[in-house]
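Predict structure. Chain length: 316.
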Amino acid sequence: MTLNVALLGTGRIAEYGYIPAINKIDDVNIISVLSRSDIRGSEFAIKHSIPKVYVEIDDLLADNHLDAVIICTPDSLHEEQVIKSCRAKKHILCEKPMSTSVESCENMIAEIEKSGIIFGMAHNNRFNAGLRYIKDVLDSSSIGQVYYARSILTTLQNDPSGWRALGKESKFWAMSATGAHMIDIFRWYFGEPTKMKKVSLSPKFRSINDEITTLSLNFNDSIICDITASAILPPVNRIEIYSTENTIIGENVFGIKTNERIYHNNEKVMIEPISSFFGEVVDFTNAIIKSIQPRSTHKDGIENIRIMTNALSDRS
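Prediction complete.
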Protein backbone atom coordinates (compact mmCIF):
# COMPACT_ATOMS: atom_id res chain seq x y z
CA MET A 1 0.00 0.00 0.00
CA THR A 2 1.42 3.35 -1.08
CA LEU A 3 0.48 6.42 0.96
CA ASN A 4 0.48 9.91 -0.53
CA VAL A 5 1.18 12.69 1.95
CA ALA A 6 1.31 16.47 1.91
CA LEU A 7 3.57 18.70 3.98
CA LEU A 8 1.83 21.71 5.49
CA GLY A 9 4.68 24.15 6.01
CA THR A 10 8.13 24.65 4.51
CA GLY A 11 10.20 25.33 7.63
CA ARG A 12 13.15 23.60 9.26
CA ILE A 13 11.19 20.63 10.61
CA ALA A 14 9.65 19.87 7.22
CA GLU A 15 12.94 20.20 5.38
CA TYR A 16 15.41 18.60 7.77
CA GLY A 17 13.10 16.28 9.69
CA TYR A 18 10.35 14.88 7.51
CA ILE A 19 11.71 14.98 3.96
CA PRO A 20 14.86 12.92 4.68
CA ALA A 21 12.78 10.46 6.74
CA ILE A 22 10.09 9.99 4.09
CA ASN A 23 12.69 9.60 1.36
CA LYS A 24 13.91 6.45 3.15
CA ILE A 25 10.45 4.84 3.02
CA ASP A 26 9.55 3.17 -0.27
CA ASP A 27 5.76 3.21 0.11
CA VAL A 28 5.30 6.86 1.18
CA ASN A 29 5.30 9.71 -1.35
CA ILE A 30 5.20 13.46 -0.80
CA ILE A 31 2.82 14.70 -3.50
CA SER A 32 2.18 18.28 -2.37
CA VAL A 33 3.24 21.09 -0.08
CA LEU A 34 1.40 24.05 1.44
CA SER A 35 3.09 27.41 1.92
CA ARG A 36 1.80 30.86 2.78
CA SER A 37 4.15 32.15 0.06
CA ASP A 38 3.73 30.90 -3.51
CA ILE A 39 7.36 31.78 -4.24
CA ARG A 40 8.67 30.04 -1.13
CA GLY A 41 6.46 27.03 -1.80
CA SER A 42 7.59 26.74 -5.41
CA GLU A 43 11.27 27.00 -4.49
CA PHE A 44 10.79 24.36 -1.78
CA ALA A 45 8.91 22.03 -4.15
CA ILE A 46 11.54 22.30 -6.89
CA LYS A 47 14.36 21.69 -4.41
CA HIS A 48 12.69 18.53 -3.07
CA SER A 49 10.95 17.28 -6.24
CA ILE A 50 7.44 17.73 -4.86
CA PRO A 51 4.87 17.77 -7.71
CA LYS A 52 2.26 20.22 -6.41
CA VAL A 53 2.31 23.50 -4.47
CA TYR A 54 -0.66 25.15 -2.78
CA VAL A 55 -1.22 28.36 -0.85
CA GLU A 56 -4.79 27.45 0.12
CA ILE A 57 -5.37 24.40 2.28
CA ASP A 58 -8.85 23.78 0.83
CA ASP A 59 -7.32 23.28 -2.61
CA LEU A 60 -4.68 20.91 -1.24
CA LEU A 61 -7.25 18.82 0.65
CA ALA A 62 -9.47 18.54 -2.44
CA ASP A 63 -6.93 16.19 -4.05
CA ASN A 64 -8.52 12.73 -4.08
CA HIS A 65 -5.08 11.12 -4.36
CA LEU A 66 -4.01 12.55 -1.00
CA ASP A 67 -4.12 10.20 2.00
CA ALA A 68 -2.53 12.14 4.85
CA VAL A 69 -1.07 15.49 5.89
CA ILE A 70 1.92 16.31 8.07
CA ILE A 71 1.33 19.63 9.83
CA CYS A 72 4.55 21.61 10.39
CA THR A 73 3.11 25.10 10.67
CA PRO A 74 3.07 27.62 13.56
CA ASP A 75 1.07 26.51 16.61
CA SER A 76 -1.84 28.91 16.08
CA LEU A 77 -2.60 27.44 12.64
CA HIS A 78 -2.96 23.84 13.81
CA GLU A 79 -6.60 23.98 14.91
CA GLU A 80 -8.01 25.15 11.58
CA GLN A 81 -5.75 22.85 9.58
CA VAL A 82 -6.56 19.80 11.69
CA ILE A 83 -10.30 20.42 11.57
CA LYS A 84 -10.30 20.93 7.81
CA SER A 85 -8.15 17.84 7.30
CA CYS A 86 -10.51 15.78 9.46
CA ARG A 87 -13.51 16.91 7.44
CA ALA A 88 -11.66 16.00 4.25
CA LYS A 89 -10.99 12.52 5.73
CA LYS A 90 -7.21 12.90 5.61
CA HIS A 91 -5.04 11.25 8.25
CA ILE A 92 -2.93 13.67 10.28
CA LEU A 93 0.52 13.79 11.83
CA CYS A 94 0.66 17.07 13.76
CA GLU A 95 3.78 18.76 15.05
CA LYS A 96 4.01 19.70 18.69
CA PRO A 97 2.67 21.63 20.51
CA MET A 98 -0.79 20.48 19.43
CA SER A 99 -2.13 24.05 19.58
CA THR A 100 -2.05 27.15 21.76
CA SER A 101 -4.70 26.30 24.37
CA VAL A 102 -6.57 23.40 25.95
CA GLU A 103 -9.84 24.66 24.46
CA SER A 104 -8.33 24.66 20.98
CA CYS A 105 -7.12 21.08 21.49
CA GLU A 106 -10.61 20.07 22.63
CA ASN A 107 -12.08 21.52 19.42
CA MET A 108 -9.57 19.52 17.41
CA ILE A 109 -10.20 16.29 19.31
CA ALA A 110 -13.96 16.54 18.76
CA GLU A 111 -13.37 16.57 15.00
CA ILE A 112 -10.69 13.85 15.16
CA GLU A 113 -12.99 11.46 17.00
CA LYS A 114 -15.96 12.30 14.78
CA SER A 115 -14.00 11.73 11.57
CA GLY A 116 -12.42 8.40 12.52
CA ILE A 117 -9.10 9.36 10.91
CA ILE A 118 -5.71 8.36 12.36
CA PHE A 119 -4.15 11.24 14.29
CA GLY A 120 -0.52 11.10 15.36
CA MET A 121 1.03 13.62 17.73
CA ALA A 122 4.53 14.31 16.50
CA HIS A 123 6.58 13.68 19.62
CA ASN A 124 9.55 12.40 17.64
CA ASN A 125 11.89 11.96 20.60
CA ARG A 126 9.98 8.86 21.72
CA PHE A 127 11.79 7.16 18.84
CA ASN A 128 15.33 8.21 19.76
CA ALA A 129 17.40 5.17 20.76
CA GLY A 130 18.79 6.60 24.00
CA LEU A 131 15.43 7.73 25.34
CA ARG A 132 13.91 4.36 24.36
CA TYR A 133 16.71 2.60 26.25
CA ILE A 134 15.78 4.54 29.39
CA LYS A 135 12.09 3.71 28.86
CA ASP A 136 12.91 0.00 28.57
CA VAL A 137 14.97 0.10 31.77
CA LEU A 138 12.18 1.88 33.64
CA ASP A 139 9.57 -0.60 32.37
CA SER A 140 11.74 -3.54 33.45
CA SER A 141 11.81 -2.25 37.06
CA SER A 142 15.49 -3.24 37.23
CA ILE A 143 16.52 0.31 38.04
CA GLY A 144 14.84 0.41 41.45
CA GLN A 145 12.61 3.21 42.70
CA VAL A 146 13.19 6.46 40.80
CA TYR A 147 12.95 9.54 43.01
CA TYR A 148 14.42 12.27 40.85
CA ALA A 149 14.99 13.12 37.19
CA ARG A 150 15.93 16.23 35.31
CA SER A 151 16.46 17.44 31.78
CA ILE A 152 17.70 20.58 30.06
CA LEU A 153 17.30 21.36 26.38
CA THR A 154 18.16 24.62 24.67
CA THR A 155 17.51 25.70 21.10
CA LEU A 156 19.69 27.42 18.55
CA GLN A 157 16.52 28.63 16.82
CA ASN A 158 16.42 31.64 19.15
CA ASP A 159 15.59 34.49 16.77
CA PRO A 160 13.61 37.11 18.74
CA SER A 161 11.79 38.05 15.54
CA GLY A 162 10.70 34.45 14.92
CA TRP A 163 7.07 33.38 15.22
CA ARG A 164 7.54 31.59 18.56
CA ALA A 165 8.89 34.74 20.20
CA LEU A 166 6.34 37.28 19.02
CA GLY A 167 3.20 35.91 20.66
CA LYS A 168 0.83 36.03 17.67
CA GLU A 169 1.33 32.49 16.37
CA SER A 170 2.40 30.80 19.61
CA LYS A 171 1.80 31.40 23.31
CA PHE A 172 5.13 29.76 24.15
CA TRP A 173 8.72 30.21 23.03
CA ALA A 174 11.20 28.07 24.97
CA MET A 175 8.42 25.75 26.11
CA SER A 176 7.11 25.37 22.55
CA ALA A 177 10.54 24.80 21.03
CA THR A 178 12.07 22.46 23.64
CA GLY A 179 9.95 22.21 26.79
CA ALA A 180 7.17 20.25 25.07
CA HIS A 181 9.67 17.51 24.20
CA MET A 182 10.84 17.07 27.78
CA ILE A 183 7.31 17.17 29.20
CA ASP A 184 6.31 14.43 26.79
CA ILE A 185 9.25 12.21 27.67
CA PHE A 186 8.62 12.45 31.41
CA ARG A 187 4.89 11.78 30.87
CA TRP A 188 5.89 8.77 28.75
CA TYR A 189 8.15 7.55 31.54
CA PHE A 190 6.08 8.31 34.63
CA GLY A 191 2.46 9.08 33.69
CA GLU A 192 0.56 12.24 34.57
CA PRO A 193 2.06 14.75 37.02
CA THR A 194 -0.08 15.60 40.04
CA LYS A 195 1.56 18.91 40.96
CA MET A 196 3.81 21.46 39.29
CA LYS A 197 5.81 24.59 40.05
CA LYS A 198 7.66 26.85 37.65
CA VAL A 199 9.82 29.91 37.17
CA SER A 200 9.58 31.59 33.78
CA LEU A 201 11.49 34.65 32.57
CA SER A 202 12.23 36.65 29.43
CA PRO A 203 15.38 38.46 30.56
CA LYS A 204 17.31 38.87 27.29
CA PHE A 205 14.91 40.00 24.56
CA ARG A 206 11.96 40.86 26.84
CA SER A 207 9.78 38.68 24.65
CA ILE A 208 6.06 38.41 25.39
CA ASN A 209 6.69 34.63 25.46
CA ASP A 210 9.04 32.72 27.73
CA GLU A 211 12.76 32.79 26.94
CA ILE A 212 13.72 30.43 29.77
CA THR A 213 11.52 28.29 31.99
CA THR A 214 12.25 25.81 34.75
CA LEU A 215 9.35 23.51 35.55
CA SER A 216 9.19 21.03 38.44
CA LEU A 217 6.74 18.16 38.03
CA ASN A 218 5.61 16.00 40.95
CA PHE A 219 4.48 12.48 40.05
CA ASN A 220 2.27 11.01 42.83
CA ASP A 221 4.45 12.44 45.61
CA SER A 222 7.10 9.90 44.62
CA ILE A 223 9.14 11.45 41.80
CA ILE A 224 10.30 15.00 41.12
CA CYS A 225 11.26 15.88 37.55
CA ASP A 226 12.92 19.21 36.78
CA ILE A 227 12.75 20.57 33.23
CA THR A 228 14.67 23.59 31.96
CA ALA A 229 13.74 24.89 28.50
CA SER A 230 15.66 27.79 27.02
CA ALA A 231 15.84 29.86 23.87
CA ILE A 232 18.76 31.99 25.11
CA LEU A 233 21.40 29.62 26.52
CA PRO A 234 24.28 27.90 24.70
CA PRO A 235 23.52 24.37 23.43
CA VAL A 236 22.67 21.85 26.15
CA ASN A 237 20.92 18.53 25.50
CA ARG A 238 20.79 16.26 28.54
CA ILE A 239 18.60 13.98 30.65
CA GLU A 240 19.35 12.40 34.04
CA ILE A 241 17.49 9.67 35.95
CA TYR A 242 18.27 8.86 39.62
CA SER A 243 16.93 5.90 41.59
CA THR A 244 17.78 4.18 44.84
CA GLU A 245 20.29 2.00 43.04
CA ASN A 246 21.01 3.45 39.60
CA THR A 247 22.00 6.57 37.71
CA ILE A 248 21.38 7.02 33.99
CA ILE A 249 22.82 10.02 32.16
CA GLY A 250 21.92 10.79 28.55
CA GLU A 251 23.75 13.34 26.40
CA ASN A 252 22.48 14.60 23.03
CA VAL A 253 19.34 12.48 23.25
CA PHE A 254 16.84 15.03 21.87
CA GLY A 255 16.58 16.36 18.34
CA ILE A 256 16.45 15.71 14.60
CA LYS A 257 20.03 14.50 14.39
CA THR A 258 21.51 13.02 17.52
CA ASN A 259 24.89 11.81 18.66
CA GLU A 260 23.46 9.99 21.64
CA ARG A 261 25.60 8.90 24.56
CA ILE A 262 24.04 6.97 27.43
CA TYR A 263 25.85 6.17 30.67
CA HIS A 264 24.22 3.68 33.06
CA ASN A 265 26.00 3.67 36.42
CA ASN A 266 28.96 5.38 34.71
CA GLU A 267 29.24 2.64 32.07
CA LYS A 268 28.64 3.63 28.46
CA VAL A 269 25.69 1.85 26.87
CA MET A 270 26.09 0.67 23.28
CA ILE A 271 23.11 1.91 21.28
CA GLU A 272 22.39 2.34 17.58
CA PRO A 273 20.96 5.83 16.98
CA ILE A 274 18.31 6.13 14.27
CA SER A 275 16.49 9.09 12.80
CA SER A 276 13.66 9.81 15.22
CA PHE A 277 11.62 11.28 12.35
CA PHE A 278 12.05 8.07 10.36
CA GLY A 279 10.72 6.07 13.32
CA GLU A 280 7.87 8.52 13.80
CA VAL A 281 6.76 8.42 10.15
CA VAL A 282 6.99 4.62 10.03
CA ASP A 283 4.89 4.41 13.19
CA PHE A 284 2.30 6.82 11.76
CA THR A 285 2.03 5.12 8.37
CA ASN A 286 1.83 1.67 9.96
CA ALA A 287 -1.00 2.97 12.14
CA ILE A 288 -2.87 4.04 9.00
CA ILE A 289 -2.31 0.72 7.23
CA LYS A 290 -3.23 -1.39 10.28
CA SER A 291 -5.97 0.95 11.61
CA ILE A 292 -4.31 1.18 15.03
CA GLN A 293 -3.27 4.03 17.29
CA PRO A 294 0.22 5.50 16.78
CA ARG A 295 2.66 5.68 19.68
CA SER A 296 1.65 9.27 20.49
CA THR A 297 -1.96 10.43 20.11
CA HIS A 298 -4.18 13.46 20.62
CA LYS A 299 -4.37 12.59 24.33
CA ASP A 300 -0.62 13.20 24.57
CA GLY A 301 -1.07 16.45 22.67
CA ILE A 302 -3.75 17.92 24.93
CA GLU A 303 -2.09 16.82 28.19
CA ASN A 304 1.17 18.40 27.05
CA ILE A 305 -0.66 21.68 26.35
CA ARG A 306 -2.49 21.44 29.66
CA ILE A 307 0.83 21.28 31.53
CA MET A 308 2.42 24.06 29.47
CA THR A 309 -0.61 26.32 29.88
CA ASN A 310 -0.80 25.76 33.63
CA ALA A 311 2.93 26.31 33.97
CA LEU A 312 2.94 29.63 32.12
CA SER A 313 -0.48 30.98 33.13
CA ASP A 314 1.17 33.32 35.64
CA ARG A 315 4.84 34.24 35.49
CA SER A 316 6.85 33.93 38.69
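Summary: Residues 128 and 276 are 5 Å apart (CA to CA).
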